[in-house]
Amino acid sequence: MGLRDRVGVEPHIALTEVLVEVGHAAIRQGRVVLIHVDEVQNITDENLLSQVLISLGDAITREVDVDVPAVGVVTRSLPIAVYLTGLPEFDDRSGARKGATFARRFATTTLEPIDDDDLRSALRPLIVSGWEVPSPEGTMGLVRLSPDAAETIIDVCRGEPFLFQLAGQRAWYAGDGDVITRDDVQKGWRQAQPEAISHVERILERLPQREREFVTAMAELPPRDRSQGQIAARAGFAKATDAGTPSQRLDRVRGIIGRGKVYTFRHRAIEAFLTSDWPTIN
Prior knowledge:
Blueprint: H1 11-29, E1 33-37, H2 46-61, E2 63-68, E3 72-77, E4 80-84, H3 90-94, H4 102-105, H5 116-128, E5 131-134, E6 140-145, H6 147-157, H7 161-174, E7 179-180, H8 182-205, H9 209-220, H10 228-235, H11 244-252, E8 257-258, E9 264-265, H12 268-275
């Protein structure tokens, strides 16, 4: 996509043509093509981003004629599914600000933090069945996770997928036995604390000033007092309605808070960072 000064069609047109041909091949083979672009916010060139989105959008909305036995020629879409994953603010860059057809062609989903019970379900096989690993003798052994170690991982990660992975990784390498203990999790997490802090700080630093002020003020109030009016006053806004847009974006775009009569934190790691001594553990 970055090549220039070459004879032929524009890169985004060539990419669209390739995707269309892939879609035709999928139809012939009775398959579905899944295109996944991860960390899509790292496409920082606005022109390049626009071309990529146009190519993908043109491919998933392309209709072709196919011959159906006993029916005749019918129109169908190409069997192409596209997933773009990355930071929530990518939706801003690719939607209204671009003026492209992104919003009409792609549905945006902001992921919620993972529920603790879902994390327990994810860790259950490691507790019950264990994870098979090779031993120094050349045989296969099992490493299991103790139940209290699992609860400690769940507690420190606060529903944040990256922190869940980080806590599990550090716990795995903290010990050398065939059972990952609570002490292993604590030891690993102490080593991971600077990275956990940096992760949450990066989320906060990426927020526009008004949104960051709103979140900080919200954290300073007792949970029962977190109404829009009281948060706005705490943040130094001239009037309560000035907090409307920041709070809407923190809810709808960022997925950090939940609005209601009393506002709540949906991003539990940010709440813990701003209101407690997390990520410190005893």
